[in-house]
Design a protein that fits this description.
This protein has 638 residues and is mostly helical. Helices cover 75% and strands 2% of the residues. A hairpin with a 2-residue loop joins strand 1 and strand 2. The termini are far apart. The strands form 3 sheets. A two-stranded antiparallel sheet has the order 1-2. Strands 3-6 form a two-stranded antiparallel ribbon. A two-stranded antiparallel ribbon has the order 4-5. It is globular, with a radius of gyration of 26 Å. The chain is built from 26 helices and 6 strands.
Length: 638
Amino acid sequence: MMDPIQILVGGLFVGSIFAMLALSFSFVFRVTGVVNLAQGAFCVVSALAAYTIHADYGWSLPLASLAAVFGTTLLGALIGASVLVRALDRLSSSNILMLTAGIMTLLEGAAFVIWGSQPYELAPFSGDHPIDLAGIRIAPQGLWIVGFISVAVLGVWLLLAKTSLGRTLRACAGNPAAARLMGINLRNMSVFSFGLAAFLAALGGVVVAPILSLQFNTATMFSVTAFIAMTIGGMGTFAGAIVGGLLLGVVGQGGVAYLSSMFGNMITMALLMAVLTFRPNGLLASGRTRRADVRVDVCAHIGIVRIPERAGWMLTACGAFGLLALPQLLSASQAGLINTLVITGILFISVIGLDLLMGYAGQANLGQAGFMAIGGYSSAYLATSFGVSPLLALSAAMLIALVCALVLALVTMRLRGLYLALATLAFGLLVDSLAVGLTDITGGPSGLVGVPSFAVDSHSFDTQLSMYYLVIGLIAALLLTLTGALRSRFGRALQAIRTDQIAAAAMGINVPFYKAFAFVICAVLGALSGGLYAFNFHYLSPDMVDMSLSLALVAMLIVGGEGTLVGGLFGAALLTIAPIVFQPLASYKMMATGAILVLSYLYLPTGVYGSLAQAAMRRAGRRRASATQKIGKRKVLE
């Protein structure tokens, strides 16, 4: 009987870590309506900073920890004031979620540049000799974790329930418009909430560092897990954050102990999907909490830029001619650039699907790499293990992705905003776990090798040049097909749903059908991209199609321009070619990707393509106005 109790105690200690992070998520969400994925990065940065101050500068561990927590809190408040507060009234909650994902990537990249990829671990606060309580072995640091989470919960409750500042924060959370009319400075309250949440995350990082080895990319795991815990318990409820974190810890530890780490993750994701399906507001959510998708209704989505049809066709023709002629302009020494262009085109195919779903239908998707993994592994496995022709294998992989998308669409049909983003994120993480765990099919962490070149009948695309023209042809066919579809009733329905789902339903539009249709197309294009990815590299491993790729695809779309179909090509080219051209600065790639995503949301809301199109239309408008004035003057003189 002691083994289950030992597992339960271990799960509660791990769950306390998740609960503390979920509490910081919940505090920010309750005041501002924002889910800040950068919380996990604050946790890791604080722990790594404490290690450096303690080990390199000789400070005592308590002083080093206090300095790290204080510095990280200031960093969180600064980011909140300079970035997040500016976005509150300009972006929907889904887009702010992606913005915070960019901040998380930026901070992870900065941590990689400063501390490298090796893990770090602080010394335990009171030794590492386990305490024996009635046969249960307890690590002393676990008691520190429980103590800190208890103090943090009590402190937050006292702040909100017993102080005037807490009453002000509750007013901001309950009715921001009324609070503004009462003279409350919402900006200052938001900055305070971001700073306090960063403090909670930083404190959690310092406390957990002695029992968990932390490195730069641990931030993603912390953020995602805390987000899931808050959602399971109930967004905006402190009790829900605690319960959700503890529940995840116990379930995860039990799954690892009795099954495996892969099945532990599967059980966690299954629990999340069950909650999202049957109780989407969370287990302990009350009717007093603010709706998670409120910002979707009151904030404008990133604008779509339309250029005149004639100019669009002219630009398309020029672009097509340039892409066809580009390989002929490259010298033999630049042949490696062709492979980079092929990768750019393959990723752009996936971004096209993402644009249809996010840019036109307004539905968030943080799991596109999961569909790329399904397409890549399915087609590669069929081709290598059963000798299926690459074309047939790729077609079967796209069909598998279609079925998975339909099942996921049925589960998430009622979801929108943050909940839909979390569901797709969970799906991507589940696929990633399967890619690592199903070693007989995927090769596990080592990857699947020996994937043949793509071929149609007897014609093999076994050179980079032939693969380049294949990808260009597929992109052209997709763009022409989708351009026509988006000018039909299908496109008008998607844009109506994107603007206001309730109004679209009132107009007689079958909202669930069109959302599912767009999601399926997005998934199938992701699978197509993943299959070509595997055939091009002749190899596929989990780290090639993990969550970081999903965030990179979103960054490509945002940087290029949502709702444009072709805009994503600019983002894909920038984020794929630039790291290769600037190879000496490769270690800054992650940090640059995060910075580009953040700056694009703040200063290029329509993306590179949209900004160029707007500039061209303004210039054309000035020319027309000038020509009209000249004609008017000429008529007056006559």
